């Protein structure tokens, strides 16, 4: 088991370096891009992307979305049944920003080099956040606040400026098989949340690998996590 865990960690770190710093293509579109129908990118895009319709998919096909000087590179606001996959997202204050939305799928993306947070998810229901990498962002990897009935699993957050994952006021959700390493202060933070499952998440080597409050003791279920340093904050 120890050998398998070590190989898994090494694989994730190697994959992170390859994906986050792969060279960009020679051509790029530019300007604000509104997504109203299913869209596949055929080149990099410079400028923010905003979803303006429900029930649509964006497949970046490995291309980069960069938004220097913008609040977010990709915005999903008050939308339903939207999917974003295979994007490399950089250059905004936030890479991916999801708010007030339902049944959103964020899968197989890389958020890197954003000023604040790689992926900021808030005030939404039924999100699926899966197989994403968030690395080398100024503050955080994945920040999930005020979520319900959501699944955050098989994600990696490494080398972010403050913490890897924050789960704040999240309820009736599952956070499983996530991995944090090399973030400056915290691997995972869990505050003011209840009725959640945290299973097989891993973090070691941070100042604190899991920081959690004890406002509601026993409110969440923890199973088979590998967290080397756990600190409870009681006030």
Tally of alpha and pi helices? 1
Indicate the proportion of strand residues. over 45%
**What characteristic shape results from the CA principal axes?**
globular
Element string (H = helix, E = strand): HEEEEEEEEEEEEEEEEEEEEEEEEEEEEE
How many β-strands, per DSSP? 29
| Average of the residue pLDDT scores | 91
What's the CATH superfamily, by name?
Single-stranded right-handed beta-helix, Pectin lyase-like
Helix content: under 10%
What's the short version?
The protein has one helix and 29 strands.
Description:
- The chain is mainly beta and 235 residues long.
- The protein has one domain (2-233): 3 Solenoid (Pectate Lyase C-like).
- Helix content is 8%, strand content 48%.
- It contains one helix and 29 strands.
- The strands form three sheets. Strands 1-4-7-10-13-16-19-22-25-28 form a ten-stranded parallel β-sheet, with helices on one face.
- The longest helix is centred in the first third of the chain and has 19 residues, at 2-20.
- The radius of gyration is 17 Å and the shape is globular.
Task: Please give the structural blueprint.
Elements: H1 2-20, E1 28-30, E2 33-35, E3 39-40, E4 44-46, E5 49-51, E6 57-59, E7 64-66, E8 72-77, E9 83-85, E10 88-90, E11 94-99, E12 105-107, E13 110-112, E14 117-125, E15 128-130, E16 133-135, E17 140-148, E18 151-153, E19 156-158, E20 163-168, E21 174-176, E22 179-181, E23 186-191, E24 197-199, E25 202-203, E26 208-213, E27 221-223, E28 226-227, E29 230-233
Parallel strand pairs: 1-4, 2-5, 3-6, 4-7, 5-8, 6-9, 7-10, 8-11, 9-12, 10-13, 11-14, 12-15, 13-16, 14-17, 15-18, 16-19, 17-20, 18-21, 19-22, 20-23, 21-24, 22-25, 23-26, 24-27, 25-28, 26-29
């Amino acid at each position: 088991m120890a050998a398998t865990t070590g190989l898994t960690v090494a694989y994730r770190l190697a994959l992170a370096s390859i994906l986050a710093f792969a060279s960009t293509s020679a051509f790029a579109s530019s300007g604000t891009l509104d997504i109203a129908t299913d869209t596949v990118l055929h080149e990099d895009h410079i400028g923010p992307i905003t979803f303006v319709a429900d029930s649509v998919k964006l497949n970046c096909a490995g291309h980069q979305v960069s938004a220097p000087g913008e609040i977010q590179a990709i915005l999903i606001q008050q939308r339903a049944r939207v999917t974003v996959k295979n994007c490399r997202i950089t250059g905004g204050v936030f890479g991916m920003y999801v708010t007030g939305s339902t049944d959103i799928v964020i899968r197989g993306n890389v958020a890197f080099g954003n000023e604040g947070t790689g992926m900021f998810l808030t005030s939404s229901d039924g999100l699926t956040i899966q197989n994403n990498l968030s690395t080398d962002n100024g503050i955080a990897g994945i920040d999930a606040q005020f979520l319900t009935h959501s699944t955050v699993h098989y994600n990696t957050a490494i080398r972010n400026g403050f913490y890897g994952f924050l789960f704040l006021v999240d309820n009736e959700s599952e956070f499983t098989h996530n991995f944090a390493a090399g973030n400056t202060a915290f691997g995972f933070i869990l505050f003011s949340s209840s009725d959640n499952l945290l299973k097989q998440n891993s973090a070691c080597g941070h100042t604190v690998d899991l920081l959690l409050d004890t406002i509601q003791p026993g409110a969440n279920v923890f199973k088979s996590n590998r967290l080397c340093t756990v600190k409870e904050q009681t006030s």
